[in-house]
Design goal:
The protein is α/β, with parallel strands linked by helices and 256 residues long. 18% of the residues lie in helices and 27% in strands. It has helices at residues 193-198, 203-217, 223-229, 231-236, 238-249, and strands spanning 7-8, 13-14, 19-20, 25-26, 30-32, 37-38, 43-44, 48-50, 55-56, 61-64, 77-80, 85-86, 91-93, 102-105, 110-111, 116-117, 122-123, 128-129, 134-135, 140-141, 146-147, 152-153, 158-159, 164-165, 170-171, 179-182, 187-191. A ten-stranded mixed β-sheet has the order 3-6-9-12-15-18-21-24-26-27. Strands 1-4-7-10-13-16-19-22-25 form a nine-stranded parallel β-sheet, with no helix packed on it. It has an eight-stranded parallel β-sheet with strand order 2-5-8-11-14-17-20-23, with no helix packed on it. Helix 2 packs parallel to helix 5. The protein is elongated. It starts with 6 loop residues before the first strand and ends in a 7-residue tail after the last helix. The model has no long low-confidence stretch (mean pLDDT 97).
Length: 256
Amino acid sequence: MIHSSAVVDRGAELQSDVEVGPFSVIGPGVVLGAGTRVGSHVVIEGPARIGERNRIHSFSTLGGAPQDKKYRGESSTLEIGDGNVIREYCTFNRGTAGGGMVTRVGSGNWIMAYVHIAHDCKVGSDNVMANGTTLAGHVEVEDCVTFGAFTVVHQFCRIGAHAFSAMGTVILKDVPPFVTVAGNSASPHGLNTEGLKRRGFPARTLQALRSAYKTVYKRGLTLDAAIERLAGPAKESAEVGRFREFARSSGRGIVR
């Protein structure tokens, strides 16, 4: 299952059914779970733990040292879950001391060509990152987020679950869950209604979220006043509660 031209360090741990393509390099401290397939010309540096049934396409580099001038060679890690598709020329860096020493990617993500995930990012599961999406260091992405091609996210930003960014969006502040953003710099453009419908959110939930969105973005209220006004609706809808809590806890401020 390992091509004769591939280089696999003795300090790597590969399950018996892992496939490694021509001219790929698997370094020491790398763990590859069952059913994972590594294409040609891939470089995986350790320490890195990659789960089961991942598909890693040609010319990707995973587990490289962080692009952080404060990094001094500490032993940090990259952790990737199960069932991810990682297309060509992607780069995922390991963590740093300032971010807990780990970069983490969940499961079931569809990650297209030329995506960059920088040091200390925490990416959830079932996300879609279109070509050229770039996450700077310490970015946190929840679940079921869709990034349009060439979306750029500033360091330390948070992206809430089920959010959507249009092609070429530059995100400089936190994006609340369920919200669509676009532009440079990003501005809100309503709910990710189509995505929510596809994932089976009922009509009553969509209506509650529309009302919450209007409270935050359409009523001319300060953010603090809008958050206070959502206290009641948040008790009736878990999704509104999630939306409200994300805005309330934002350290950078939300896209608005």
